[in-house]
């Protein structure tokens, strides 16, 4: 993992065409870019393409990066989020990939206690959210960013970002309650 | 910090005060000790727990595949100039083309007694310059 100063130094080298520097940035941040892309786009295949495209853009546009205006991770995550949201908008007419996980009475209380089911439930809850709420949740709860950083990435005020988080969490709570009720469970 | 503000922040940032805005954290910690706030945080923690399974790391093999794909992509840029475009756009190409142009012009105007000798010399000169390091354009088109 690199720190911010390392990232900035590496970006200066990337801007000069240093592939080794890009490789080091990818070693440090590719995993998080994939995970963030997957949580927003809702597809592993899309996430791989999004993360790849994001780093190709980092390579091509490195000279535009200004470390005085934003951390590298903020810049990178903004690229990932925008690519993921664009992809979701283009595919809006298609059924969402996680539709199979929407509560349909198939979940039992015992299943929900299993780790695998917990993961599926969490994925389904996140997938059920509007895309910007999903992005806000992913940035803060999965990637550990602050509200200020998340707001900068989504290009909204901190107050608006907090609203996205609150509504997203409330919707996830409702979704989970519906899933558990449909499965006949009392708690998870 | 009043109760309403505390509730708003818990709704947004959950039970872990480390996620809350840094400038409000000390105020929040003072409120968090009260029974009322403890109940709010316990409720918020139940939603935090929902997201915990999603924090799984990405498999190293998958990261490696994606890094490999990016490396391949940047080493084969779209619309890379062909060899003749690189030659034509380089300083070497321009100088060579100029000398060849003069050579061709001379070949059309030279007297019949010395047919094409001057043009031939200029053509040879042009071709010799085409590889000259003096006319190198540096790494402008290098991968």
Features:
heterodimer; A: 188 residues; mainly alpha; Rna Polymerase Sigma Factor, Chain: A; Arc Repressor Mutant, subunit A; 72% helix; B: 143 residues; 7 helices; 0% strand
Structure, briefly:
By secondary structure, chain A is an all-alpha fold.
How would you characterize this protein structure?
The complex is a heterodimer of chains A (188) and B (143). Chain A is built from nine helices and no strands. In chain A, 72% of the residues lie in helices and 0% in strands. Chain A folds into two domains: 1-94, Orthogonal Bundle (Rna Polymerase Sigma Factor, Chain: A); 100-188, Arc Repressor Mutant, subunit A (Orthogonal Bundle), CATH 1.10.10. The radius of gyration of chain A is 18 Å and the shape is elongated. The two termini of chain A are 34 Å apart. Chain A is mostly helical. Chain B has seven helices and no strands. With 143 residues, chain B is mostly helical. Chain B has two domains: 3-55, no CATH class; 83-135. Chain B has helices at residues 3-13, 25-32, 35-51, 60-75, 83-89, 91-109, 117-129. Residues 126-143 of chain B have low confidence and may be disordered. The chains are: A mainly alpha (188), B mainly alpha (143). The interface between A and B is large, with 43 and 33 residues.
| DSSP, total strands of chain A | 0
Rounded to the nearest angstrom, the radius of gyration of chain A is 18 Å
Strand content of chain B: under 5%
Distance between the termini of chain B: 58 Å
């Amino acid at each position: 993992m690199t720190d911010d100063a390392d990232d900035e130094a590496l970006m200066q080298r990337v801007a000069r065409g240093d592939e080794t520097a890009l490789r080091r940035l990818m070693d440090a941040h590719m995993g998080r870019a994939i995970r963030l892309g997957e949580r927003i786009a809702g597809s592993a295949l899309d996430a791989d393409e999004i993360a790849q495209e994001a780093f190709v853009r980092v390579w091509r546009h490195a000279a535009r990066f200004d470390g005085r205006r934003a951390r590298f991770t903020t810049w990178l995550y903004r690229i990932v989020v925008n690519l993921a949201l664009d992809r979701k908008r283009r595919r809006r007419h298609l059924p969402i990939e996680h539709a199979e996980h929407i509560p349909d009475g198939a979940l039992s209380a015992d299943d929900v206690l299993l780790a695998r089911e917990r993961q599926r439930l969490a994925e389904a809850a996140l997938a059920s959210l509007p895309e910007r709420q999903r992005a806000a949740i992913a940035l803060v709860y999965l990637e550990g960013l602050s509200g200020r950083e998340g707001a900068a990435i989504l290009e909204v005020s901190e107050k608006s970002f907090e609203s996205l988080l609150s509504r997203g969490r409330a919707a996830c709570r409702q979704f989970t309650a519906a899933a558990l009720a449909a499965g006949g469970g009392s708690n998870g | 910090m009043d109760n309403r503000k505390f509730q708003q922040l818990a709704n947004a940032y959950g039970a872990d005060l480390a996620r809350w805005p840094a400038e409000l954290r000390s105020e929040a910690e003072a409120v968090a000790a009260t029974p009322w706030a403890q109940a709010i945080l316990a409720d918020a923690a139940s939603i935090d727990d929902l997201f915990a399974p999603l924090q799984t790391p990405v498999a190293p093999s998958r990261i490696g595949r994606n890094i490999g794909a990016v490396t391949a992509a940047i080493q084969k840029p779209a619309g890379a100039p062909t060899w003749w475009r690189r030659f034509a756009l380089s300083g070497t190409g321009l100088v060579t083309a100029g000398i060849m142009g003069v050579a061709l012009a001379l070949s059309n105007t030279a007297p019949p007694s010395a047919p094409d000798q001057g043009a031939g010399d200029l053509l040879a000169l042009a071709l010799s310059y085409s590889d000259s390091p003096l006319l190198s354009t540096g790494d402008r088109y290098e991968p």
